[in-house]
Design a protein that fits this description.
The complex is a heterodimer of chains A (22) and B (137). Chain A contains one helix and no strands. Chain A is an all-alpha fold. Chain A is elongated, with a radius of gyration of 13 Å. Chain A starts with 14 loop residues before the first helix and ends with a helix. The relative contact order of chain A is 0.18. The N and C termini of chain B lie far apart (52 Å). Chain B is mainly β. Chain B has a five-stranded antiparallel sheet with strand order 4-3-2-1-5, with no helix packed on it. In chain B, strands 9-8-7-6-10 form a five-stranded antiparallel sheet, with no helix packed on it. In chain B, 27% of the residues are buried. Classes of the chains: A mainly alpha (22), B mainly beta (137). The interface between A and B is medium-sized, with 13 and 29 residues.
Chain lengths: 22, 137
């Protein structure tokens, strides 16, 4: 069975990804 | 029939921060087992299995926007279940129990929310849907 996901927010997208979105 | 898992490519190195996560390297290919709306996806990479941030992955084929909902500028009412202090310019700082409007539910788990005149990203895992219709003013 799969454990529950982490209870802390995931890290923000890396810089490369954010540039792509912008 | 066989279960076909979606393949994604890792776009940046990621070091796990707990034993339930796995470390990834740029260019790795992973298969997605489960997508949590809070932005953590359960995936397998070679023999490793664990949670990774969705924002570090891009689909191997097909446009990435296809599974992401369009923004809803009217807003959907949610209540914050936990306080969060903005760590970056484009995030919002909110206390517990604040009512906000969700404008865009991003797959990376950082939703775009509006509080009064301010708009910014907030962790979806700290939001609870009120179920109320927004009053038209």
């Amino acid at each position: 069975s799969i454990k529950l996901p982490p209870q802390n927010p995931p890290p923000r997208p890396p810089a490369e990804m954010r540039r792509k979105r912008a | 029939g066989p279960i076909i898992l979606e393949s994604y490519r890792v776009i940046a190195d990621y070091s796990h921060t707990s034993k339930y996560e796995i470390t990834l390297h740029i260019g790795d290919l992973v298969e997605i087992v489960e997508k949590s709306p809070n932005g953590w996806w359960f995936c397998q990479c070679d023999t490793k299995r664990g949670w990774v941030p969705a924002s570090y992955l891009e689909p191997l084929d097909g446009p990435e926007e296809s599974e992401e909902a369009d923004p809803n500028y009217a807003g959907e009412l949610y209540i914050t279940t936990k306080a969060y202090k903005a760590a970056q310019d484009d995030e919002l700082t909110l206390e517990t129990g604040e009512t906000i409007e969700v404008i865009h539910k991003l797959l990376d788990g950082w939703w775009v929310v509006r509080k009064g005149e301010e708009t910014g990203h907030f962790p979806s895992m700290f939001l609870y849907r009120t179920g109320e219709k927004k009053e038209m003013v």
